[in-house]
Design a protein that fits this description.
The protein is an all-alpha fold. The protein has one domain. The protein is 81% helix and 0% strand. The protein contains 19 helices and no strands. The termini are far apart.
Length: 466
Amino acid sequence: MTIKNTQMKSSVYNYLPNKIKNFFSTGHSRSIRAKKNIFASFGLKGISILISFLLVPLVLNYIDITKYGIWLTLSSIIGWFAFFDIGLGHGLRNKFAEAIAKGQKELARIYVSTTYAILFIIIGIIYFLFLIINPLLNWTKILNTPVEMGNELSKLIIIVFTFFCIKFILQLIGIVIVADQKPAINDSFNVIGNFLSLLIIFLLTKTTNGSLLYLGTTLSVAPVIVLLIASFVFYNKDYNYCKPSFKYVDFKYFKSLESLGVKFFILQIACIVIFATDNIIITQILGPAEVTPYNIAFKYFGIPIMAFTIIITPFWSAFTEAYTKNDMHWIKNSIQKIIKIWTLVVVGVIVLLVISNQFYLIWVGDKVQVPFLLSAFMGLYAIISTWNNIFAYFINGVGKIKLQMYYGIIAMVVNIPISIFFAKNLGMGSAGVILGTCCSLVIGSFFAPIQTIKIIKGNAKGIWNN
């Protein structure tokens, strides 16, 4: 009897570990890689979310709500310049994955080296033009701030843009790692950068008075330090085979990278207009102080978006590999599983909405008031954007993005006027801005699933297959 009890206990204790082991060791090798990266990314993103949530009250204790709104708006504007990579980042991601899938490591190195060279030239020209144009810009008017902040803003702009340009090039190491279906490693860079920012800002609260200049410098420098170290370490170890080198720069491959890159470039512009103009609209219509509650709600409902993004990120390059090898069965099964997971996102958003007011009170206290209507539309945005991403990641992975480019342009054109109409003419405030974004995204919610089905079934023709 004792022996039987011991055996039963042993089997119970081993059941869960064995289940976990089988989960991560069974299935297609592509699926196993995805599972391992998803699991690791959840841990890393969980830490990242915790740090980002700790940063908000810490920053609000360091600077006031208006200055925080100014910083959020300024960082959004600087982020617009990301589209100057003319889609090369996404082009590299697909081409690198294709090259590795075919065992062509030297070609992968050519793609990497050429992309670095082209982006260095582009960002050099942009930075030179910025130094010429910046003195002519009135940032107090652009950001709707008091005139006396002009001197501080001028210094901050130069610092932030300088480090943005450096990060612009260094972040290619992350694209290479993600293209190699190891997004968890790239996620670790963000965690380390956020932790470094949190640590420095905490020290600033103890040693200095609230300074927008110090805050902006810290948040700009920290990720650059992390990416610089990561580039040195990974290109000298795991990715030594594709380490960028002048010897492997070959501009004739620019056309190959840019064949997809131009379309991705247009999509990036559309995404910037849709997603990165909200802060400017709010600043100009309602004032910079209103940017803060908007971004608090955005960050809160960004939790399900981030969780879902963790799950689907490994599939972009996996879809590229599977499509290259004509493994449609795996693609179909993967998308069906992702859709089932998306239904949990909907449930999660509803739960977050129900407890939103209580959570805001615990998180930031009574310093910031977030209207329930803003939370409701932000939840709707989370549901729509995650649904769209299921199919966008597949379509992007296989490079059939012409149709997506067209409806992206339509969404870009209608987004700003609709957002202004809802916010200003209908008096909905910042809630109207995110509602306008939701309306512009609905177009893709219908066309992307149809295109995905056509490609998988092999009957996509014309624009559906370009």
